[in-house]
Amino acid sequence: MFAHQFGRPDWSPEIVLNTGDTVMALDGSVSGKRAQQQIELWQAATKNCHVPIYSCLGNHDVWDLHEPTAEIPAEKAGFKLMKDVLDMPRDYYSFDHGGWHFIALNSVCQWPKYGVLSDEHLTWLVDDLNRTPRTTPICVLSHLPILSITSSVYGDDCRKGDDVVIPGTWQHADGWVISEIFRRHPNVKLCLSGHMHTCDRCEYRGVWYICGGAVSGAWWNGSQYGFPPCYGQLDLFDDGTFSYQFVDYGWEKRDWRGKEWLVS
Questions:
Q1: How confident is the model over 96-102, as a mean pLDDT?
Q2: pLDDT averaged over every residue in the chain
Q3: Terminal Cα-to-Cα distance of the chain (whole angstroms)
Q4: Residue 241: which of 189, 167, 172 has the closest Cα?
Q5: Please, which of 122, 149, 182, 200 could form a disulfide with 188 given CB 3.0 to 4.6 Å?
Q6: Number of CB atoms found within 10 A of residue 15's CB
């Protein structure tokens, strides 16, 4: 098994970091009624979580204003609906916990285009990093990976003849620009993301980038290219180091329809 099933039994989190796509999908033709049902499922799933949950927005968290209702009115369109549900102070923000500084980016800030931060967002990021003491280690959250190996080996979907082509909706097209910003702030130690439903970890210019897969695996239908439904156990230490473990939590799918390469 690619990860230790059920993790460490003596481990319990101080906070939960949610890297987006909290609900199955609100974008497209999802009605206000259907959006409310999905939100209620999230609330039921997390009602017994007694530690703070810090979230960033994913592409499926943006409501496209289809058939509003009294509970989900038109004023909740765009980022506002899930921002309020997730108790986010704004669609990108930062906070401190346990001696670390955390930055939650909005990978979909230019919706319906996503995977590129706006000039305003980049300016805010630089300002936030400048305000953070150089002795404070930093962890960055984003929905789309800023840098990732998964985007180059996502099944065979990225193969175009003899080339590997990474769609701009798979990882940040401005990843190099963001990494240049990080290069000027060596206390940026770790970047966490989701989106790709597969897992990796890579290091570039002193920063570790971890794509944490998906709690849903292949959208609840099994494993996605061999990566089962999973979450990450993360320990952060005062000196800026960390440990991270991918955990297969034992989801039993009812009808396996995941993706893999089948050898005939």
A1: 97
A2: 93
A3: 23
A4: 189
A5: 182
A6: 14
pLDDT above 70 (res 263): no
Rounded to an integer, the average pLDDT of 246-256 is: 84
| Phi, psi (deg, nearest 5) at residue 109 | -65, -20
On whether residue 92 sits in a domain, the answer given is yes
Q: How many residues does the chain have?
A: 264
Residue 220 is part of which domain span? 16-248
Query: Per residue in 20-46, pLDDT tens?
Result: 999 999 998 999 999 999 999 999 999
Q: Say how many domains are in the chain.
A: 1
Asked if residue 216 is part of any domain, the answer here is yes
Task: Report, as an integer, the average pLDDT of 95-124.
Answer: 97
Tokens of 10: 């003596």
Two tokens, residue 16 = 């939960």
* CATH number, domain containing residue 142: 3.60.21.10
Q: Is the separation of the CB atoms in 31 and 67 below 8 Å? A: yes
Asked if residue 262 is part of any domain, the answer here is: no
d(CA 230, CA 228): 6
Tokens of residue 39, six digits: 């939100």
Token pair of 34, please? 């259907």
